[in-house]
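*Target chain*
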Amino acid sequence: MGELSAVNGIAGCFAERVPVLHIVGVPSTGLQSQHAMLHHTLGDGRFDAYQNIYKNVTITQANITRKNNRTGTSDAGEEIDRVIVQAIKKARPTYLTLPTDLVGGECIRVRTRAYFSLPVLQL
């Protein structure tokens, strides 16, 4: 029930324009592809249920997958950088999922430092 409890705090951050990176550990990519009945699915096998809820209270979302974890067209580091930069620039929460089987994966190169020279949203 962690994500259902956390959504209230993230919604408050959205309303108050607080930049937050909400990182969620999710079941392995294998269990997700099997649509396993786990607590991360609201009991119906849909692993995108929580992300769909968070679309209403975050400005961007990202899922670290095998495709963006070094072998695909984008890199996990780029996705992570993207959500961090959006949180800072727009002063709103962002959402990132990380499957348990990809926790130890490598990123090509993290470039977030280069973005910190960009202007931050002035309120």
Summary: The two ends are 34 Å apart (CA to CA).
